[in-house]
Amino acid sequence: MSRSRFKAGRRKFAGLLIGALVAMSPVFLHAVERLNFRPGFNLFSPAQDVEMGRKASGEVNGQLPLVRGSQVLRYVNNLGKRLAAFAPNPSSGVKYDWTFNVVNSSDINAFALPGGFIYVNRGAIESAQNEAQIAGVIAHEEGHVVMRHGTHQASEIMLAQAPLSILGSLLGQSSGLAGQLARLGIGFGVNSILLRNSRSAESQADEVGTYILYQAGYDPYGMAQFFEIIQKKYPQRTIQFLSDHPNPGNRIRNVDEEIPKLGPKKDWKTDSPEFGAVKRRLQRMPPPPKPAPKK
Ligand SMILES: [Zn+2]
Fold first, then answer.
1. Count of other CB atoms within 10 angstroms of residue 285
2. Considering the entire predicted model, what is its pTM?
């Protein structure tokens, strides 16, 4: 090794060392923690998230009864898009297709398909006590989207089922993606594995959701409050929500600990007249259709 290359190497090492020390220093820890939203292992490109999500939403829209009232849809889309503007985007450069639908079901539930297709049940809106709480549910779902939990989950299953050489050629040709996934047993409908989140994915969606609420000026406790309400008030009706979004344990305490790290307390928004109007609109609608008995 020449002397100059040795020196350059030493400088590089010194640079790395300083970098490491800066990262460890408590002054910088705060900022690092806030921005540490990293999606997990994923075989898909973010653009494929949008492609798969669009296909899946086409199927879901045919499988679930949707609320058609324009007032309700307009409200949920406006709120959802406003929140999405504050969502961290670690796969920067990707434009998610933020689309929001309301499912005409009294079950308290919500779910997100890859790429930004979010479904909020009528029952979730009706049981939220204020706008910050329903914003929290939507922000949590947006967390699943930007952390790409659906395709992360699909990637892990694919990796377990197919050799990497097959996966390589499969993922190269996006046109046949849906068919190839179907061959691996990965479906797109309402029972898709794209919707089954792990507990660690839940914690991450909670963190991102709380972050979005804070950034958007909403009471960041809204999301955790909503989880608390549904668990206390409707213990028998939370089963579906908790099977799609399993409780990572100490959920409320974790979120409560997260909030002071986001920044100072502000004059947070908790409610709006529009939310009240939408709730009343839903209450005046005919009751949701009875779900078909499970086969
Ligand atoms: Zn979730």
1. 13
2. 0.82
